[in-house]
Design brief:
The chain is elongated, with a radius of gyration of 43 Å. It is 58% helix and 19% strand. The protein is of the alpha/beta class. The strands form three sheets. The chain has a six-stranded antiparallel β-sheet with strand order 2-1-4-5-6-7. A six-stranded mixed β-sheet has the order 8-12-13-3-14-15, sandwiched between helices. The protein has a three-stranded antiparallel β-sheet with strand order 9-10-11.
């Protein structure tokens, strides 16, 4: 049940708060007053687009908010548990905040202050509120939607069976695609083998073992090409470390001299001994460095002869990259892939195995399709009888409604083509619902099917579903709505005083212009006088007959 609705800065609404009640909540007001804004705001709360984004936020404002508080049923708890939400809350608070940014309108949705996706919110919305108006014929125009109406009435076992069908269908479709790919590969294998084998031969002979070989070779090449300069720099360093140049002492000789000097005084102070040890360590490091530098020069001289071989290998690898338009890491990957390709077993046996598996899957699906179709027909018969019974109560004694099945191409939804057929008169042939039903008939039919397929607890929102009805038809419709409202909450926008008088709660929507700015407001009519005055307005004016009729309607509703 919808407990409270808050709307802020939406279209003509600056801020309103509506506290709905159990039973029948009627919403009235003049045409153009903004009644449908209430419906459209609830629709927008669940991600709907009844209000275009450009008109969603009130002019002059930078954001809008819509918040709905709902009671939590066991059905809703189950949904929350399945979707990872806590179920310890006493109420369900759903909020949409939309704001302007860079000439766009962006929206965030939350459930009990936790972000929720638009898709999940749409799913939750269908459990919380069921909308209906005379223009809702589109819900029957789609085969998928007609099938869904039937499937939603199924038991838990039927729902699980339908899910199993979908999973098996998905698996079989994947297997079909895989078989097709395998066959295509097999057909092209012979013509491609020669080329691929030749490519593999070249790559194997290339003996590529490292993805970094080119960069490593380039480093070596650069080193050898510049070996003279490198050696000169190292020799100069050696001269500084170990030789006298231009009567300048070397680092090594200076260290030796320092050690000799400290040796003279080492017995006089223990700290000098430590200094001496440090110098000895430095001397050892310098000697190691001198040895390493000499070895580097020697090895460099020995490796210079490798330069032609390195350059040859480098040219070969770069030419290989150009030939196949692939870089070295990709060539290695390609070689490994081709190795595995030619190591595979015969694809023919693999295809036969998959075809056998597909045959088993299709056999399972066919069995499930038959069971599914039979169950759908049982559900459809019950729905058909329920709708017909309600239609007769609503004054359509001669109407006929039939749910007919025909077989269609198998899909993840089964093999059933479901049609909703209707005729209003005995001499009228059954025809697709949307093509033969009038507005007044549609309002009664919608009420009949909605009340037949609804899963309690739920909230119905009827938008002028009584439009165009009068007399006995209107009376029957109102009585059914009141009957539904005893077990379920009903929100109803109406222009009919007869229906408005029967509301448990009555809300009036109106416009107010302040300083040239229009505001849509809503007030709850709590006194008998307030409700009577509104009924008089709906009837058409304050003349005596209207006043008397309004009084009778009020008295009848209270009785």
């Amino acid at each position: 049940m919808l407990i409270q609705l808050k709307i802020e800065n939406v279209a003509l609404i600056e801020i309103i708060e509506i506290n709905f009640e159990k039973g029948l909540n009627v919403i009235t007001g003049d045409s153009g007053s903004g009644k449908s804004l209430i419906l459209d705001s609830i629709n927008a709360l669940f991600g709907g687009t009844n209000i275009p984004l450009k008109h969603l936020i009130r002019p002059g404002k930078d954001h809008c908010e819509i918040e709905g508080k709902f009671s939590i049923s066991q059905q809703i708890k189950n949904w929350m548990r399945r979707n990872g939400f806590k179920t310890s809350f006493k109420e369900l608070k759903i909020k949409r905040k939309s704001y302007r940014k860079n000439n766009k309108v962006l929206s965030k949705y939350s459930l009990n202050n936790l972000l929720i996706s638009k898709k999940s919110l749409d799913e939750l919305g269908r459990l919380l509120i069921d909308f209906a108006c005379q223009s809702d014929t589109f819900i029957f125009d789609s085969l998928d939607k007609r099938r869904l109406i039937i499937d939603d009435l199924g038991s838990r076992e039927i729902i699980d069976s339908n899910l199993k069908i979908k999973n098996l269908w998905q698996e079989s479709e994947y297997l079909k695609r895989l078989i097709k790919e395998k066959i295509e590969i097999s057909n092209k294998q012979e013509e491609n083998n020669l080329a691929t084998k030749e490519m593999l031969k070249i790559l194997e002979q290339a003996n590529i073992n490292s993805k970094e070989e080119i960069s490593e070779l380039e480093t070596q090449e650069n080193k050898l090409v510049n070996s003279l300069e490198i050696n000169n720099s190292i020799k100069a360093s050696l001269d500084n470390l170990n030789n006298y140049i231009h009567d300048q002492p070397s680092v090594s000789s200076l260290i030796n001299e320092s050690i000799k000097n400290l040796n003279r005084t080492v017995d006089f102070d223990l700290k000098i001994q430590k200094f001496r040890e440090q110098l000895l360590n430095i001397q050892a490091d310098v000697e190691d460095l001198i040895f390493t530098l000499k070895s580097y020069i020697l090895n460099g001289e020995n490796n210079e002869s490798n330069l032609p071989e390195i350059q040859k290998r480098l040219f070969f690898l770069k030419n290989l990259e150009r030939t196949f338009s692939l870089e070295l890491p990709q060539l290695i990957e390609k070689r490994n892939h081709l190795r595995k390709y030619f190591q595979k077993n015969d694809t023919g046996n693999e295809i036969l195995s998959m075809e056998h598996e597909l045959k088993n899957l299709q056999s399972k699906l066919n069995s499930l399709f038959i069971v599914q179709s039979a169950e759908r027909k049982i559900i459809a018969k019950k729905l058909q009888n329920s709708v017909m019974s309600i239609l007769r109560d609503l004054g359509l004694e001669n109407a006929n409604f039939s749910i007919q099945f025909s077989e269609c191409n198998p899909s993840r939804e089964g093999i059933d083509n479901v049609n909703f057929l209707f005729s209003a008169n005995p001499d009228q042939k059954l025809a697709p619902l949307s093509s033969v039903i009038s507005g007044g008939e549609m309002s009664r039919f919608l009420l009949a099917i909605k009340s037949s397929i609804s899963k309690k607890p739920n909230t119905f929102f009827f938008d002028e579903i009584d439009n165009g009805l009068s007399g006995k038809s209107l009376f029957s419709l109102v009585e059914l709505i009141k009957k539904i409202s005893k077990d379920q909450q009903v929100l109803c926008i109406t222009h009919q005083p007869f229906l408005a008088a029967g509301g448990t709660a009555h809300f009036k929507v109106y416009k107010n212009v302040i300083n040239g700015i229009t505001y849509t407001l809503i007030s709850k009519l709590t006194t008998k006088k307030e409700r009577k005055n509104e009924l008089i307005e709906l009837i058409g004016g304050g003349f005596g007959e209207a006043n008397d009729y309004a009084s009778r309607l009020i008295d009848r509703a209270v009785a």
